Amino acid sequence: MDSSSLTCKKLTVIAVLAVLIQVFGLALFVLGFFPVKPALSGFSGVESFYPPGADSSEFQNTTNLSDSQLKYLYQELSLVPPLFDRLILMVIDGLPAEFVLGKDGEPPPKSFKEAMPYTQSLLTKGRAIGYHAKAAPPTVTMPRLKAMVSGAVGGYLDVAFNFNTQALLDDNIIVQFLKVGWKIVMHGDDTWLKLFPGMFSRHDGVSSFFVKDTVQVDQNVSRHVVDELSRTDWSLLILHYLGLDHVGHLGGRNSMLMAPKLGEMDEVIKTIDLNSLPTNNNDQGRTLLLVVSDHGMTENGNHGGSTFEETDSMALFIGPTNFGTGTPNKANQVDLASTLALLFGVPIPKNNVGMLMPETFKSLTVDQQLRLLELNSWQLLRLLEAQLPGLVCENFLCDDFRDDGSERTKGYSSLEETFCCLYMKAADLHRSWKSGEEKRSASGDNCHSILMAYHNFLRTASEWLSHRATDKPVGRLIFGVAAMLISCLILLSLLFLLGKQVFSEQNQQFSSANKDLSWWHLDEIFILVVIVIVVISMGSSSLVEEEQYIWHFMASSLYLLSLRKVMQQNTSAGTLDWKTNNYIQICSIFVILISGRFLRGWHQGGVNWTNLPDISKWLEQAGSTYIKLFQLVSVILLINISLVSLMWSRRSKKNFMTVVSLMHLFPGLLVLHYVTKYQDVAFRTGSYDATLMAQIIYAVLGFCSTAIVVAVPWYIPFQNRTLSVPEVQRKAWGLCFRDSAFVIGLSYVYYWSLLQLLLQQPVNSMPVLFLFLQVLASIWYSSGSNQHCRQWVEVAALYYMGMAGHFGLGNTNTLATIDVAGAYIGVWNHSTILSGVLMFIITYASPMLYLLSMVMYSSVKDTSGFVISQKGNIGSLLKRTLGFPCLVPLGLNSILLIAYTIVLLLMRNHLFVWSVFSPKFLYVCATTVCVCVGVSIVDSTVIYISLVLTYREKMQTHTD
Question: pLDDT tens across 414-447, in order?
Fold first, then answer.
């Protein structure tokens, strides 16, 4: 396509088509790369007690058996009586195991240990045995509960389904208990009700997402405890406490509420233990209290990623008899399903990938322990056969075992041979043991070798199945990549053609600058170098984790180059020729650099060095008084700077601008009032006034922004309207457009910043102000640039600063830094959509701020190209004002999107694919949504302004 034929209509249609192709390709890739892991259908039954491949005719028909008959059949086939008859499953959401069990051989922190004296006494006496039960990412509640009850590792997109939980249809321990006639009662997190609808005899669910509540959410559970313990009509009691997780979200690990909350949980454990002990000697049977956590939490109290702090969940078995003392044990969270099934004599869930926790079975005889290991091995072997069709153990001759009982695993030629030989060694040794070929009295070493052989097979099979990557449809992935690549090439082609056309017009208009415009400048080359560096860094997991360093360095370096360019332009002739614009540009660059440096030091972002000191940590240590002071200063400065900036539009009517100023002042005062009076109670339970005030602020911000957008183009006056010279009319039209775009763009940026001061964590109030200052400084810098500066460079610089600001607010490429607490400000009850929107607004505060500033940016650029246009129609203005502000963000994002998609495709079998690369890809996808939404707002606003002004001009001409 020739650049001269690139009309506004063609540009718009082709750009929209390219974006649609990109969205289609991205959706195709995401659905192919993150499929829900397939699971074996059906539920485990009597076949679980027979070896794989056994003749199904041997299985007893269970369709006509009652619940109690099926229960006794399972016990008869398992050959091991159940150790317990009733189970109390107490889930303490978000509790890191190190709070109770310590870490690396060290005891837990003193304050936490003293907060749970009864639990610590149980561990000391040997009545409890604790595990560091490692959770798999994503560390959010719903997939972790599924892992505990089914023993299966879910798909990574479960992090999205966590906000809209669906019923669990796979085999799980809850269904197995129901099949043998258990009655189940649940109190707590309503995620259980969504996973298992209609399966509970009694229940009282509470919302898991309303994180402001740290008190009532647990009291609603505890009020049922004593009554339920006195009842005999249940076999499984589930108590899911959410308060500790909410405390973490609001104040982090070191919150002043953390120790009291641990003490509250200790009292619940004490109550349950003291009330359940007497029942162990009567007809109710022996009761096991299992205290677990679904995940841990980071230092800031968040979770979702794969760090040790987030995956360090707990499993604490408390029984009527001693388990024995010892150091805390290690296991995987998926091991709970198989362990519970074997403890209570029911089949292991069909898709379980975990192995039993051997320390919980030490009270059994050697024969019984070996039988349970055998049942666990059969179940995993069936799963291996489903995953590996070539796994037929009869086809392998495993004669490479050494005399010392160890095996030469490196000599195996395939996975199938490895698993078969490990299993057959354990099975052969066990068969020899059962046949009595060796004297039992003298076979202690042989018994140990059988246990080790089973554990070796179970551990190897469990690890492989847990990390088993789902076979991805490569064709679909490649097709998605191809669609995104085509979209990227279309957008870059449009950008190139637009640039060529605009530069051609500039050469005609400024013939003296012909040579200057035809050469690449250093800042333009640097823009492209940044893209290359970011693309290259995507292939390194360490650089993905520490991406903030790249954006901070590149953004500051770019404006240092701009400072050099401004200085060179004024000293090129050997004499200083300073103008007002030059001083404005230099001052603007210094504001940008200083604000950027504060943003860089506010949060020690990333993953590896979060423990290092930064400004936010210093403020938190200094106390809430200093944080409140910074909040008040930020709000007051933001209000005053916006009011002063409105004075720039001097051609507007005085009365009208007074109204606009009041519309800026009023919501600012509301936010100031909220920060002063309600900020401290906004996250507490039952804060009715704070929630109502937040909702009022939402309504006022929405009304004021809408009113300004709608009204400003109608009330900004035309200048020189009485003159009939076309060029003068077009210039007057252009000036009116600039005034309208400036006022609306400033309002966008100002209201968005006020919204962030309301939603962001209090410690982030000053960074929000710095971002606002950077935006205004960037606009002032662009207003002083001459025609020699290419617009795509300025727009790219805004995009780069938006990404740097994203990390400056404390965001990272892990899911753990997403601010969940702020998503419930002004929310009465949990709403998946509303809270999701607020979470998105908080996370993408900086990129969206810079995208919204494109409206204001279009107002400060010289519209002389519109004046000298042959026709001077609205299309030429829209192409000139919207072309670069929309195409440059879309183009840059497309490059990063397609590059990282290819990296993810290449890294699909990498060790860190789920812990580092996949979370980053989710952020890349969300950034794409942010860019599309921001560009759509800018497009709609500028087009609306142009249409209104065009209509007003026609009406005035008709009247004249």
Answer: 777 788 888 888 888 888 887 775 545 445 556 8
Query: What string of DSSP letters covers 636-658?
Result: HHHHHHHHHHHTT-TTS-HHHHH
Angstrom distance (rounded) from CA 485 to CA 895: 8
Q: Give the separation between CA 261 and CA 95, rounded to whole angstroms.
A: 11
Instruction: Report, as an integer, the average pLDDT of 497-526.
Output: 64
Q: Which residue is associated with the tokens 């006020």? A: 754
**Alpha-carbon torsion, ordered 800, 804, 806, 809, to 10 deg:** -150
* Mean local confidence (pLDDT), 272-279: 76
Could you report the per-residue pLDDT of 538-597, keeping only the tens digit for each?
888 888 888 888 898 888 988 888 888 877 766 654 444 556 667 778 888 999 999 999
Given a contact cutoff of 8 angstroms between Cβ atoms, the answer to whether 306 and 131 are in contact is no
Question: Which residues, other chains included, contact 234 with Cβ-Cβ below 8 Å and sequence gap of 6+?
Answer: 86, 182, 183, 184, 185, 201, 202, 228
> Cα(533)–Cα(542) distance, rounded to whole angstroms?
14
Q: Which residue has the tokens 């333009």?
A: 524
pLDDT tens for each residue of 174-188: 999 999 999 999 998
Q: Which residues pair with 313 in a beta bridge?
A: 133
Q: How confident is the model at residue 328 (pLDDT cuts 50, 70, 90)?
A: confident
Distance (Å, rounded) from C-alpha 849 to C-alpha 835?
20
What whole-number distance in Å separates Cα of residue 58 and Cα of residue 61?
9
What single letter denotes the amino acid at residue 271?
T
Tokens of 839: 């979470």
| Beta-sheet pairing, 287-292 with 86-92 | parallel
From 468, 589, 475, select the one nearest 523 (Cα to Cα). 589
Convert the pLDDT of each residue in 873-898 to its tens digit: 677 777 777 888 889 999 999 999 99
Count CB atoms within 10 A of the CB of residue 534: 21
Q: Say what the pLDDT of residue 406 is.
A: 44
Q: How far apart are CA 666 and CA 410, in angstroms?
A: 73
Residue 502: pLDDT above 90?
no
The pair of three-digit structure tokens given for residue 726, joined into one six-digit string: 């076309």
The H or E element containing residue 582 is helix 580-602
Residue 55: pLDDT over 60: yes
Q: What pLDDT sits at residue 862?
A: 57
Three-state secondary structure readout of 215-277? CHHHHHHHCCHHHHHCCCCCCEEEEEECHHHHHHHHHCCCCCCHHHHHHHHHHHHHHHHHHHC
pLDDT digits (tens, 9 = 90+) for 721-765: 454 555 555 666 777 888 888 899 999 999 999 999 999 888 889
Residue 696: HSE in the Cβ half-sphere, 13 Å Cα cutoff: 14
474: CB partners within 8 A, 6+ apart: none
Average pLDDT, integer, range 90-98:
92
**What 8-state DSSP symbol labels residue 825?**
T
Q: Residue 539 and residue 906: Cα distance in Å, rounded?
A: 9
d(CA 855, CA 739): 11
> Counting Cβ atoms within 10 Å, is residue 612 exposed (0-12), middle (13-18) or buried (19+)?
exposed
CA distance 259 to 281: 35
Average pLDDT value for residue range 692-700? 91
Instruction: Please give the pLDDT value at position 458.
Output: 92
HSE-up of residue 221 (Cα within 13 Å, Cβ side): 31
CA distance 327 to 657: 72
Q: How many residues does this entry show for the chain?
A: 960
Q: What is the pLDDT of residue 515?
A: 46
Cα angle for residues 334, 338, 342 (degrees, 5° grid): 155
SS3 call for 90? strand
524: exposed, middle or buried (C-beta count within 10 Å: 0-12, 13-18, 19+)?
middle
